[in-house]
């Protein structure tokens, strides 16, 4: 029996294209390209295929979520600053019907008060923060495990 290939959308929000350069004391020195390469490697080992999107524009992130309705089984999202402000992203996550894991490089609960509230967390199956680039790998692993545990998931 051949394993089915899982499809996951990875969404990176605003300013994450500057990883490795922007506030490395908070976000680390690893670039987004390096994080994406690590995610792709981890996905290959799990028979999963990723579509990776980074945008500084909320509408592009929402459109990407809407498109998953036709092809994905799950979503891994770091909405960055939109985490704390975007009801529209929250609604788009709900509309997909897919299990979604929220990730953050920094520990958002150890930062400014406004960062301690995630509008997305209540509509995600879980949240991982504070482990730097490892947050993405931990989130992907958890998401793939959850998808595989669902009826019909056999990856």
Quick structural gist:
By secondary structure, the protein is an alpha/beta fold. The chain is built from 5 helices and 5 strands.
Largest sheet: 5 strands, parallel
> How are strands sequenced across the largest beta sheet?
2-1-3-4-5
Please identify, by name, the CATH architecture. 3-Layer(aba) Sandwich
How many DSSP H or I helices?
Answer: 5
**Could you name the CATH topology?**
Rossmann fold
SSE run: EHHEHEHEEH
Assess the beta-strand content as a share of residues. 15-25%
CATH class identity: Alpha Beta
Number of E strands: 5
- Helix-and-strand structural type: alpha/beta
- Uncertain ranges: none
Which value, in Å, is the CA radius of gyration?
Answer: 15 Å
**Overall body shape:** globular
Q: Compute the average pLDDT.
A: 92
**How far apart are the termini?**
11 Å
**Total of domains:** 1
What characteristics describe this protein?
single chain, 155 residues, alpha/beta, Rossmann fold, five-stranded parallel sheet, 5 strands, globular
Structural account:
Helix content is 34%, strand content 18%. The termini are close together. With 155 residues, it is of the alpha/beta class. Helix 2 runs parallel beside helix 5 and helix 3 runs parallel beside helix 4. A five-stranded parallel sheet has the order 2-1-3-4-5, with helices on both faces.
């Amino acid at each position: 029996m051949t394993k089915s290939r899982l499809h996951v959308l990875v969404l990176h929000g605003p300013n994450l294209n500057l990883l490795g350069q922007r506030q490395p004391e908070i976000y680390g020195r690893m670039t987004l390209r390096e994080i994406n390469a690590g995610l792709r490697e981890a996905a290959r080992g799990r028979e999963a295929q990723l579509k990776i999107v980074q945008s500084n524009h909320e509408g592009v992130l929402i459109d990407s979520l809407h498109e998953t309705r036709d092809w994905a089984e799950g979503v891994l999202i770091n909405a960055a600053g939109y985490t704390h402000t975007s009801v529209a992203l929250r609604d788009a996550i709900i509309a997909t019907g897919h299990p979604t894991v929220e990730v953050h490089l920094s520990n958002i609960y150890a930062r400014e008060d406004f960062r301690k509230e995630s509008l997305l967390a209540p509509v995600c199956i879980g949240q991982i923060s504070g482990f730097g680039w490892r947050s993405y790998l931990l989130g992907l692993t958890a998401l793939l495990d959850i998808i595989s545990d669902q009826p019909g998931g056999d990856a």
